[in-house]
Specification:
- The chain folds into two domains: 198 residues, endopeptidase fold (from Nostoc punctiforme), CATH 3.90.1720; 229 residues, Neuraminidase (6 Propeller).
- 11% of the residues lie in helices and 31% in strands.
- The chain contains seven helices and 27 strands.
- The protein has a seven-stranded antiparallel sheet. A four-stranded antiparallel sheet has the order 10-9-8-27, with no helix packed on it. Strands 11-12-13-14 form a four-stranded antiparallel sheet, with no helix packed on it.
- A hairpin with a 7-residue loop joins strand 5 and strand 6.
- The longest helix has 11 residues.
- The two termini are 39 Å apart.
Length: 454
Amino acid sequence: MSSDDSPGDRTPPAVAAWWRRRGYVGRHRLRRVVPVVALLAVIGSAPVLLHHSSNTPARQSLGILCETFRGCNRHGYNSYGYAARQWRSYWRMGPGDDCTNYVAYVESRIYHARAPGVLLGNAGSWAATARAAGVVVNHWPSVGAVAQWDYGAPGIGGGHVAVVEQVGPHRTYIVVSQEHMGGAPDYDWMKIKPGPGVTQYEPWPSSFIHFKLPQRADIGYFGPGTDVIRLRDSQAGGPANTTHYLGAGRVIPLVGDWRGNHSDGLGYYVPQTGVFHLQRAHRSGRKISNLIFRFGPAGMIPLVGDWTGIGRDGIGYYNPKTGTFNLRMSLTTGPPDKSFRFGPPGMVPLAGDWNGGATDGIGFYNPRTGVFHLRNQLSKGAAYRTFRFGPAHMRPVVGNWAGGRKDEVGYYNRWKGKFYLRVRLNNGPATVIATFGPRYMIPVSGDWFGSWLT
């Protein structure tokens, strides 16, 4: 058996005995139960489980998007490496082929939720236990939440938990990843719709558990020459969690906290005209609108940063011919509030809070050497940090990868479609490596959780 395939019920006896002695908790073993009416509607015969490949119409009609660790990875989903880590316990759940341990693993390692202060127990009791411990439990799905089915839920029996990976428009569907739902594949990603009479393996969850997730930057990409930007609500590869539309044509995507609410919005810059388009931004007071204004000449490289430390981003541009940074504190047309040169011409400009001081500094990436030069002050002068990270000719990205107060850097390899992120501002290996989307995209990063984007 390959290490990428689900182990099913083949739990090593020694491991099973070990977690029983340690008092680890999991859910009751279930078989996948398909309602007879649903099966008759699909296949017109007795209720038997058909073993089609995961991309056949029969499987898709039941909501199955992929099956087995290897199969999901191969079809662009992500098993998050659980096959190699399943014999370790997370949140004191039963290691191995167990829905509760898988969910605890993904919540803690992928979405970075803190371990709850209570033992959540079997899957059917998670919602009640979490609610009693002060965790938000409701009927509204969100990416990163835990989908939970109560004891006795139709087709479930002993209770179950899964991870919400995607929420459809107006909550018309959810996509979950899950372990230990029974059957030969045992691991899958499933699309589930609400309402009676829906033909699918699993009913709509009984409730959704929202463990608190830290504010941190995630990844995304924009297709050059298209109007589509796709975002991932984690620093791990997989399918896009959300898709949004920007201006078509040769535009540069922008990400910034336009509203000062600690979450990022989108926008774009048109280099042919020097015009900024910011979606749902504050112009004044509490008014929210789509802002369109020109700042600077055409052909510049746009910048976004909190230049004042007030918690709301301003904009700027970099002149590649002169190496000059031009910054504006407000989201309006007008002259630059600050203008200075930092570094030689022809660099890739950067902005980020390098020291955790609330105000963003600036920097540049030298594509010919792969060296980052960062400065805390919004003025000319010496660099605060200078270091090489990765090979030359990459596309740099900036984000709060660790969830603290400081921003860090990374790079995107357009030939591989991979993100390489590092949580320290120095030379060294990547802390996170994630493949997301096709090759030759324009990378973006930002804090999508809790924003209007999701």
